[in-house]
Amino acid sequence: MDSIEQRQDNQSILQHGTNRYQKRLAKSTKRKYTSIKLAQKIEICKIKSTNSTIKNVELASRYGVGESTITDILKKQHHYLSLSPNNYTASLCREKPSKYPAVEQALALWIDQVVDRNCSLSGHIVIQKAVTFAQLRYTRL
């Protein structure tokens, strides 16, 4: 009898220990990194502004991200709602500020003028013009 009771005690200890281990593993598993595109961030902000009763947990599960990610997006809500993304910027996940905004502005203006004149453009020509604008801008300083 003693050996049967000991076996049952040992089995219950093993099972209890296994459950603890499984619980610890379940807690330690990390969520997969998911990036949200700019268009989705704007959509989240619009949903929250039109329906303030929706919980962040619901938005997080809908978009497959953590609740803290939704909170961070909503903290920058005014910024995201002020943007008007085009096809290219809507597909971006991160906003990177330009290192040389003056050169970028001058280049954008030049490209608009060239396109208005129906001239052909290539990547090589744009790069050359960008270098020229950079040299003009930063050699005068």
Tell me about this structure.
The protein has 141 residues and is mainly alpha-helical. The protein has 8 helices and no strands. It folds into 3 domains: 1-30; 33-96, Arc Repressor Mutant, subunit A (Orthogonal Bundle); 101-139, no CATH class. The protein is elongated. The termini are far apart. The model has no long low-confidence stretch (mean pLDDT 81). The protein has helices spanning 2-28, 38-50, 56-63, 67-75, 77-82, 87-90, 101-116, 123-139. Helix 7 (101-116) crosses helix 8 (123-139).
How many E-type strands? 0
Secondary structure category: mainly alpha
Q: Helix and strand string, N-terminal first?
A: HHHHHHHH
Q: Indicate the percent of residues in helices.
A: over 70%
In CATH, the topology of the largest domain is named: Arc Repressor Mutant, subunit A
Mean pLDDT: 81
How are the elements arranged and paired?
Elements: H1 2-28, H2 38-50, H3 56-63, H4 67-75, H5 77-82, H6 87-90, H7 101-116, H8 123-139
In short:
With 141 residues, the chain is mainly alpha-helical. The protein has 8 helices and no strands. The chain is elongated and about 90 Å long.
Summary keywords:
141 residues; mainly alpha; Arc Repressor Mutant, subunit A; 3 domains; 8 helices
